[in-house]
Design brief:
alpha/beta; single chain; Metacaspase-1; three-stranded antiparallel sheet
């Protein structure tokens, strides 16, 4: 259960992660310490110093309740009519394990490049978690991912545009409260999921979706297995190969609200809940990428990003035609140039079967609603 506290300095309402004893405000950067009601008054804030707000490389704090390292608000004045742009990008390769993936860090790099160059996301407003980063607080552990998700939503105002991209393993686990249509919760796998556990769709929904205020927008791009409803959004766009679609109602039978607080949340996912996603070099032909991330960027770069319907159709066509070879000869263009410029190495061949999905907090006409990040 989430605990809401007021910032000790600016009084902004903050969502305290489970088990945390302090939290840093994304707006004013003040640290608010939370008292255990059984242990008397809250501790006094520690004296400020140049080293108190950062960790030394390679040093992990002994306590698992350290404040979030993602404590910077996007630069500039408070939100104006156009709002701010903020993104969290996570690429998990699970190196040196039996679960290793080849293309996830490539996906993260390509997504960051596209956001900064095509959609003008400030680089200072993008947090990227990968195993490549020497900073232990920027590794895609369960704790760091949780903190980064809170950072993404913290201080969100009308007009803001948020993006969450995940490339890695996804899974399922049995749901026992009757909220899932298929009886399973969808999950994302951090790099340490075998010891710390997975991040469940209920938590992602509670953290990112439900607090989203009116006038704010969240896009999630989830390149993982079993990811169709991993944000637990209430409606899923079921589209056939001719482009005809119908919105399925996935609201829990219990009546629990899984939508936003008035904002707009839309998720592109790599496949349906009962499907798996591919990590392949068949699309870029030069290195491994996630099929969904590649097809998403490809749709935009080829000019198919006018509406959500044209995006989804283009992504599905790119993936579907890979097996037949019709896309292989033409695959690439701007995206392959981007990958060539950014990446090296990697190789995993082969065809695959998956259908990217679209979910949202409210149904809409996918062929008339303009796509924009």
């Amino acid at each position: 259960m989430l605990m809401l506290v007021d910032c000790s300095k600016c009084r902004t309402t903050l969502q305290l992660p489970p088990g945390a004893q302090s939290i840093r405000c994304a707006i004013c950067q003040a640290i608010t310490h939370i008292a255990d009601p059984r242990s008397g008054p809250a501790p006094s804030p520690p004296p400020s110093s140049s080293s108190s707000s950062s960790y030394q490389p390679g040093h992990v704090p002994p306590s698992a309740v350290a404040p979030s390292p993602y404590n910077h608000a996007p630069p500039g004045q408070p939100p104006h009519a156009q709002g701010r742009k903020r993104a969290l990008i996570v690429g998990v390769s699970y190196r040196h394990t039996n679960h290793e993936l080849k293309g996830c860090i490539n996906d993260a790099r390509c997504m960051k490049y596209m956001l900064t160059n095509r959609f003008k996301f400030p680089e200072s407003s993008i947090v990227m978690l990968t195993e490549e980063d020497p900073d232990p607080l920027k590794r895609p552990t369960k704790y760091n991912m949780r903190m980064a998700l809170y950072w993404l939503i913290q201080g969100c105002q009308p007009g803001d545009s948020l993006l969450f991209h995940f490339s890695g393993h996804g899974s399922q686990q049995r749901n026992y409260n009757g909220e899932e249509v298929d009886g399973y919760d969808e999950t994302l796998c951090p790099v340490d999921f075998e010891t710390q556990g997975m991040i469940v769709d209920d938590e992602i929904n509670t953290t990112l979706v439900r607090p989203l205020p009116r006038g704010a927008r969240l896009h999630a791009i989830i390149d993982a297995c079993h990811s169709g409803t991993v944000l637990d959004l209430p409606f899923l766009c079921r589209m056939d190969r001719q482009g005809k679609y119908i919105w399925e109602d996935h609201r829990p039978r219990s009546g629990m609200w899984k939508g936003t607080s008035g904002g707009e949340a839309i998720s592109f996912s790599g496949c349906d809940d009962n499907q798996t996603s591919a990590d392949t070099s068949a699309l870029s032909k030069i290195t491994s990428t996630g099929a969904m991330t590649y097809s998403f960027i490809q749709a935009i770069e080829r000019g198919h990003g006018a509406t959500y319907g044209s995006m989804l159709n283009s992504m599905r066509s790119t993936i579907r035609n890979t097996d037949s070879g019709s896309e292989l000869s033409g695959a690439g263009g701007l995206v392959t140039s981007l990958v060539t410029m950014l990446l090296t190495g990697g190789s995993l061949s082969g065809g695959f079967r998956q259908e990217p999905q679209l979910t949202a907090n409210e149904p809409f006409d996918v062929y008339t609603k303009p796509f924009s990040l």
